[in-house]
Amino acid sequence: MRPAVAPGNARQIGLVKMPAKKTPSAKPAPNSPRGERARKIAAAEPVSPKKRPGKTVKPLAPERIAAILDALAKTYPGVVCALNHRSAWELTVATILSAQCTDVRVNLVTPALFKAFPTPKAMAAASLPELEELIRTTGFFRNKAKSIKGAAKVVVEQFGGKVPQTMEELLQLPGVARKTANVVLGSWFKIAVGVVVDTHVMRLSRRLELTTQTAPEKVEKDLMQIIPQDRWIDFSHELIHHGRQICIARKPRCADCTLEKLCNSSDKTWTSH
Ligand code: SF4
Questions:
Q1: Ligand 1 centre and the CA of 263: distance in Å?
Q2: Cα separation of 227 and 240, whole Å?
Q3: What residues flank ligand 1, with Cβ below 6 Å?
Q4: Closest residue by CA, ligand 1 atom 2
């Protein structure tokens, strides 16, 4: 005999026929951005990356690099670092906290952190449990607490309480590698000594065939050779924004991409050539 089933449970285990859910129409309005994109996608013939005419242009040809830089600058005019900060010190701490964490999350955490410990001296004197509690939601909080306290100590003891302005000196701070040092030097001091290579810059540089390397230092070296130095700072900001909004890791939005005509990546989800 079939056991009695409470009405709520019957729905969960499928004994009651549920009315079909109303789903929004899959057909976008013809004049909407979605409609435009759908039209483009429907009209395009899938083309093997090997057969694309764009493939005949050398990836590192100066005119192609210039076109990429031009398109990025036009798409993201006046782009700035997404981490909120009021000083070189705050940017250093925020960048350390941003490892394996979103900038949005870091921006939620830093106001209380800098209210409790406003200067490198105050942070150097903080206890690790206090710091851990304040930065817990950024992940890897024990290591990050050690890094920011250690960095504060070095800034106070070796650099008179001020964040240094050279790559060599910045690399002496615990938790600071080339990426963080490039962020601080570029975004705060406006000194271009390298290119910030985070996960977005790495992925996009490879998709755009600007490098074939996978180690951040080697990618940075390649980019420094092909991008003019006066574009290093903005270029990395632009690529980071493009990586977050359009050229996303899993499913790049190629039909919306202003670099699409210049891109021959095998990861493309749509192509015009
Ligand atoms: S076309 Fe696609 S893969 Fe190429 S850069 Fe644009 S979004 Fe990324």
A1: 6
A2: 16
A3: 207-208, 246-247, 252-254, 257, 259-260, 263, 265, 267-268
A4: 254
Is residue 108 within 8 A of residue 77, CB to CB? The reply is no
Q: Which residues contact 177 (CB under 8 A, 6 or more apart)?
A: 171
Per the CB < 8 A criterion, the answer to whether 205 and 239 are in contact is yes
pLDDT tens digits along 250-264 = 999 999 999 999 999
The torsion of the CA quartet 220, 221, 227, 230, rounded to 10 degrees, works out to: 80
Residue-wise pLDDT for 181-217, tens only, equals: 999 999 999 999 999 999 999 999 999 999 999 999 9
Q: Are 270 and 40 in contact (CB under 8 A)?
A: yes
Q: Is the Cβ–Cβ distance between 94 and 84 less than 8 Å?
A: yes
Predicted confidence at residue 191, as pLDDT, reads: 98
pLDDT > 70: percent of the chain: 79
208: Cβ contacts below 8 Å, ≥ 6 apart: 59, 68, 259, 262, 263, 265
3-class SS of residue 86: coil
